[in-house]
Design brief:
With 91 residues, this protein is of the alpha+beta class. The chain has helices at residues 3-20, 24-40, 47-51, and strands at residues 67-72, 75-80, 85-89. It has one domain (3-89). Strands 1-2-3 form a three-stranded antiparallel β-sheet, with no helix packed on it. α1 (3-20) packs antiparallel against α2. The longest helix is centred in the N-terminal third of the chain and has 18 residues, at 3-20. The protein is globular. The N and C termini lie far apart (30 Å). The model has no long low-confidence stretch (mean pLDDT 96).
């Protein structure tokens, strides 16, 4: 695993911890930093990371607190407090 991939994983852990403690601004900074590291090193973000972050406002999503999760026919809809929606398929 490359140094950049390890840093992205660590930033994901830090964002999750900060969001669970209620420090949303710090969690957003960690998410932005992880996205920037991935862009600079041309790495894809891990699926776990993409599913728990908002593309519009960079918030770390916690279902029930700042995100609404609904299931539809064949996909899951995650709605952030900012209004952005993400859809993920399931079988």
């Amino acid at each position: 695993m490359s140094v950049a991939a390890e840093r992205i994983e660590r930033l994901h852990e830090l964002a999750r911890e900060a969001a669970s403690e209620g420090n949303d601004d710090l969690a957003k900074r960690y998410v932005r930093r992880a996205r920037r590291v991935a862009e600079r090193n041309r790495l894809p973000l891990p699926k776990r990371f993409k599913r728990f972050t908002c593309d519009a406002c960079d918030a770390y999503l916690i279902p029930g607190r700042n995100a609404r999760v609904r299931t539809r026919d064949g996909h899951v809809v995650v709605t952030c407090d900012c209004g952005a929606q993400a859809r993920y398929p399931y079988q």
